[in-house]
Amino acid sequence: MMVLFNKPFGVLCQFSGEGDTLSDYIDIKDVYPAGRLDKDSEGLLLLTDDGKLQHKISHPKFNKEKTYLVQVDGAMTTEAVEQLKQGVVLKDGKTKPANIEIINQPDWVWPRTPPIRVRKNIPTTWIKIGITEGKNRQIRRMTAHVGFPTLRLIRSQIGDWQLDKIKPGKYECF
Known about the structure:
The protein is α+β, with helices and mostly antiparallel strands.
């Protein structure tokens, strides 16, 4: 079984613990997350009851691309985009090259609760970024490294699985 879940902001990627957890949204027994999204991130989370599939999805050696829509603070420059495309050096090593492009805010993106901070005189930029590794808080650290801190991060795709029109806090089973 495969569960595609649209994880809301503030939800932990575990079934127990303090605060909002997966058990507040998913009532299916014996499925486990294939990978993770930090509490401050939103979007596609895959869960499965198949351990081998879970490993293939989450282990970096399989190079499964994960795609994110990211709103960053400031007007991102071409130079910053090029740095991200090449890979940047973080404390835990150089990242693999990323697929990245500046995009318009997708019209299907829902309002976040709580909303991101807005500064009247500083614009924001939306980017679409695809990576095949999953270092801890990698995209946040990458965008900060090139001078554009992440304000909002939504995972939209993992391999062939897409968020499509699954509403926040809802899931579909396959």
